[in-house]
Amino acid sequence: MKLKPIYADILAIRIISNVHPDMIKKFGLPPNHRSMGMFTITMDDVGMVALDEATKQADVEVAYNHSFYAGSGNASGPLSGEFIGILSSTNNEEVRSGIDAIVQTVKSQAHFEALNEEETHALFAHVVPRSGKLLSKEASIQEGEAIAYLIAPPLEAMFGIDAALKAADVELRNLFKPPSETNFGGGLLTGSQSACEAAASAFRDAVITVSEKPTHY
């Protein structure tokens, strides 16, 4: 079954070139990090992957990342979306490079997949071939390892994670028990890139079976 990709929208971006010392302190930034870049996006998991990619393509740190409660359908404003991500660095050029990496990742690399025509039922089965600073920390692994980043609605996610673990030589490093802030669930699995690909495929297939026959057991 071929699923239609659903791409996230970046809603707002700003770069602060000379961050106030009080902000540096509150965000726990390195003292020499005086530049900050921030963005909001409609899909939190895509935002996480994009932030992680930024740490591989620019000399930046992830200063802050957080999902908003109940998802983008219940956003606090038109530019809020589902997630905020903040980068920091010693200069604007590196922050701008990081933001460029985020935009490119959101536009062409990481996306959800629709399980129905209305695009109201969706999953995220994305393989990161080489983890950066953020996802390595989230999964408690070394930078550069492969990750299967698997997300779906609550029941589908737990059913799918079990199928993924049984289908490939992967390890569950982080389980997002439902409900998350956005009322989804899922996990981060690690292994070889090929094993992560197999796990993502098994996860996708399992979630599809639930969507097709939700009460069949």
UniProtKB/TrEMBL annotation:
Major location, coarse class? other
Recorded hits in PROSITE patterns, A to Z, give: BMC_CP
The species is Cytobacillus spartinae
Report the residue ranges that make up the BMC circularly permuted domain in this protein.
113-214
Q: Does the keyword Ubl conjugation apply?
A: no
One Pfam family cited in the UniProt record for this chain: BMC
The UniProt entry, under InterPro entries, shows: BMC_CP, BMC_dom, CcmK-like_sf, EutL, EutL_PduB, EutS/PduU/CutR
Localisation: Bacterial microcompartment
Name of protein: Ethanolamine utilization microcompartment protein EutL
The domain of life for this entry's organism is Bacteria
